[in-house]
From TrEMBL:
Gene3D superfamilies: q2cbj1_9rhob like domain
Family to which this protein belongs: Belongs to the iron/ascorbate-dependent oxidoreductase family.
Keyword vocabulary terms for this entry: Iron, Metal-binding, Oxidoreductase
Designated name of the protein: Fe2OG dioxygenase domain-containing protein
Domain of life of the organism encoding this protein: Bacteria
Residue stretches making up the Fe2OG dioxygenase domain: 127-249
Length: 283
């Protein structure tokens, strides 16, 4: 596979033709959806043949996934006894799933080929309406390109993302469950909005939306500000979702604690960048 067209439906999504009328219409549609609720979906971004390649890759690297079974809060933080018992940061839930780290996706990886295709990054940046000097690939050797793998009984409780811009690609659905649910733009860079977070955690679904993503669908999501989860799955078939991560600051990297939780290890790169963040939000 040497061409991006072997994976992406460029006729429907002409990210390789910036400035064309079709490209401008595509960007306008995505920006509208992001403005409305911080989430946009491009159905069939990867065509059926491309999805077949991605499923084969996911099956091959699945044994390298780091499976973890923990209790975590929405911020992937530790218990803080100084907070009230009903504070969102003190609400812990079971989390069980696996992440296949980025160092399993080399230069020949179809998933990495999409992420590193020059027009892909420019397209995502345009869709988010971000200036070039505030948009970067996530500088994390374990987390820039990953696959989230969910097996029967597993799920991912309510949480916020570490990085500002998350782009996901549905690769394979489970037989049952695995729905993506989110509460759009619950917090901002300067406001944790704990009251709204607490309402969602308590089961108030008035603000919660659910997506039924299909294999090949690309999702652009402001996950650092929108609380979200994946419901438990059932059946023998694994749920695979590729994750492409971007940030608005150069050299942004996952925290040591969170990286160890998700991938089972940290690298010197994470230790060197510990504490270097541009906002004061809980992780």
């Amino acid at each position: 596979m040497s061409q991006i067209c072997d994976l992406v439906d460029l006729g429907r999504y002409p990210m390789d033709r910036p400035g064309s009328p079709a490209y401008q219409r595509m960007i306008a549609d995505v920006r509208r959806d992001l403005e409305e609720d911080g989430c946009a979906v491009l159905p069939g971004f990867v065509h059926d043949q491309g999805t077949t390649h991605l499923v084969a890759e996911a099956d091959q690297v699945a044994p390298m996934g780091h499976r973890s079974f923990t209790r975590t809060n929405a911020y992937f933080g530790t218990e803080d006894p100084n907070l009230p018992l009903d504070h969102p940061a003190r609400q812990f839930y079971d989390r069980s799933n696996a992440f296949i780290p980025a160092d399993n996706f080399g230069a020949d990886s179809p998933l990495r080929r999409i992420y590193e295709f020059p027009h892909f990054m420019a397209f995502i940046r345009d869709a988010l309406d971000e200036p070039q000097d505030r948009f970067f690939r996530y500088d994390d050797p374990l987390a820039d390109v990953i696959i989230n793998m969910v097996e029967t009984g597993d799920g991912f409780p309510w949480h916020f993302d570490t990085n500002n811009f998350t782009v996901t690609l549905a690769i394979q659905n489970a037989e049952e469950g695995g729905q993506f649910e989110y509460a759009p733009m619950v917090r901002s860079p300067t406001n944790e909005n704990y009251d709204a977070v607490a309402r969602v955690l308590a089961g108030n679904n008035a603000q919660v939306r659910q997506l039924e993503l299909q294999p090949g669908d690309l999702q652009i999501f402001r996950g650092r500000y929108s609380l979200h989860r994946v419901t438990p799955v059932r059946g023998a078939r694994k749920r695979y979702v590729g994750i492409f991560s971007f940030a608005e600051t150069a050299n942004m990297c996952g925290s040591v604690e969170r990286t160890r939780q998700l991938y089972g290890r940290v690298l010197p790169h994470h230790l060197e960048r510990a504490g270097l963040r541009v906002d004061t939000l809980r992780d």
